[in-house]
Amino acid sequence: MKPSYKNYIPKWLVILMRVSSVAVSIEFLIYVILILINYSKFNLLIAVTLGIGGYFLMLLTKKIINMRNAFDYNNPNSISWDIINFVVDKLEIKEDARILDIGCGNGVLAIAIAKKYPNSKIIAVDNWKDFSKRVSKEKCEQNAKIEGVKNIEFIRADIKKLDFTNETFDAVISNYAYYNISGERNIYLYEGLRVLKKGGIFLMHDLFLKIKFPHIEVLMDNIHTLEYEKVELIDTTDGNPISSGVSKKLMLNGSKLFFGKK
User: Are 198 and 220 in contact (CB under 8 A)?
Assistant: First the structure.
């Protein structure tokens, strides 16, 4: 039995886009035939509108299909796995560490870390509210069981206010956890750092766009004044693990790794 990490682009959306594209194309052809049989300005207007709309709908459908293929966890060469492997490789921690995965989603990153560090304890948190039934705590636990991982615990939690005491974890990680939540994201990043032990490592990979993190420079300045070590904001769209062209096509431009030591 294989784990089911699901795809963030649901299959029903691809089907809907394809059906819509075909429907619009058929309507366009019908009006073209009507124009040939009995020309009218009204039919011409409808045909032009359907033609233009159908063209952009086909482009959007192609984009959605490409995104689904890129985010396919069933393909070991997908962008999704490139990103997961990149974050996993960046994490260098002691063998018996306590690691927190914030906003774990489908659990794939937490499980990959648990497999790399079998003597560590991984706590993976999420509220799973935005995924409907496609991704859930129960499905994460099932995937961990299928992968043979026992050193992991999935907890339903609010990542805006973590229910852990200060300096609980040796490492705090996340992957695209903050960009899609509302509120002051810088504060939520601080909340993740709050539970990190002195000497601990943080790796937070996200869409650090200006519109999402308008005060990221302030955060970086504050982090340096708080005596954190080797704090970096690494562009991950320079070819490692995502190329600039691919990041734009998949709407991942702005992806960066917030990385450092407390």
Answer: no
Tokens of 146: 């299928």
Average pLDDT over residues 127-152: 89
Record the tokens describing residue 3, joined without a space: 């784990």
- Ordered DSSP codes for 86-101: HHHHH----TT-EEEE
Q: Following DSSP, what letter does each residue of 126-189 receive, concatenated?
A: E--GGGTTTS-HHHHHHHHHHTT--SEEEEE--TTS-SS-SS-EEEEEEES-STTS-S-HHHHH
In angstroms, rounded to a whole number, what is the distance separating the alpha carbons of residues 190 and 122?
20
Q: Rounded to whole angstroms, how far apart are CA atoms 134 and 139?
A: 8
DSSP code, position 6: -
Instruction: Say how far apart CA 56 and CA 74 lie, in whole Å.
Output: 29
**Pairing of the two strands 255-261 and 229-235:** antiparallel
Distance CA 136, CA 141 (A): 9
Output the pTM of the full model: 0.89
- How far is residue 238's CA from residue 243's CA, in Å, rounded to a whole number? 5
Mean pLDDT of all residues belonging to the chain: 93
The answer, yes or no, to whether residue 138 has pLDDT greater than 70, is yes
pLDDT digits (tens, 9 = 90+) for 63-79: 999 999 999 999 999 99
Q: What is the pLDDT of residues 34-57, one digit of tens each?
A: 999 999 999 999 999 999 999 999
Q: Give me the amino acid identity at 43.
A: N
| Secondary structure (3-state) at 106 | coil
C-alpha gyration radius of the chain: 23
